[in-house]
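Entries read chain and fold; for instance:
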Amino acid sequence: MTSAVLAALPSPPQGVWQLGPLPVRAYALAILLGGVAAWWILDRRYTAKGGPKDTAIDVVFWMVPFGIVGARLYHVVTTPEPYFGPGGNPWNAFAIWNGGLGIWGAVALGAVGAWLGLRRRGLRLAPFADALAPGLLVAQAIGRLGNYFNQELYGKATTLPWGLRIDDAHLVPGYPSGTLFHPTFLYELVWNLAMVGVLVWAERRFRLGHGRVFWLYVMLYTLGRVWIEYLRIDTAEIVLGLRLNVWTSILIFLVALAFFVVIGRRTRGVPESLWLPGREPVEGTVAGTDDGQEPTSTVTVAAEPAPVPGAEVDGQVAGAPGGARAPGEEHAPSASADEDVPSASADEDVSGRG
């Protein structure tokens, strides 16, 4: 036990710093840093698909508030005891700085926010979700550092050399001081980053699109979440002997698998478009704007100069019906640039009748 404790992962001594009267929380910083990383990845991937410039940042402002509300609602509904159970405080349901955000609530309502933001620009949700998927995994990995600083959501007791040491103030009741626990925050962080590589490889290898990258992300994440959730010992609803989040992950995995298969069959050989039907930009118009909005990108088409009537272009007379040949072409060579070719006067008959 002594050697295990010496090899254990230490917990941070604090998770909050005072900047004058303002508390700076590691949990909030982790969420913020994860969000910035996800936006950066999304912006690069979406513009690479041909998406209008600055779409990502505009839609993120719709996604984030919806996602935060959804994440908190999911946490409170699935873990109601600290808020509505014996000794609970309902007002703490609003204290998101103390931790407690459910990923599936964030994804569900965040998708609603993204749909609203994209619809205003005439863009489809599926390609945007595909571009976002790897960034979501990176954001979730970084966000787990907030659990580490809060000393929360750790796993069962362990004697492994990477066991996590928890301060007595954060111990789950029933465990003696000095007990080491599975660092589930670290397991999920490593799993998510590894799945980023799998996701990007599968997208390129199988040319996934039409939302299938996003549904593959859901499947990969839930696979890891099932076994990680099984290790956790924090308070949770138990259904048929399993934590509610385990059942939720299993159900969502099956739903994602169904969507992945069905979309693949329906879109086989179908080219993917970023735009909603009837909202595709036309030549010379501004793409991705509504009334009163600043333009984000312009479709530019290079125009060829109009031919001068009567001029010969590639052996044909411009403006002549049926691609008529220039008079006398078959019998006389064309004049070179150095020859002096007199122009016909207004009184001459140039119809070819003499």
Remarks:
- Residues 2-266 form one domain.
- DSSP finds nine helices and ten strands in the chain.
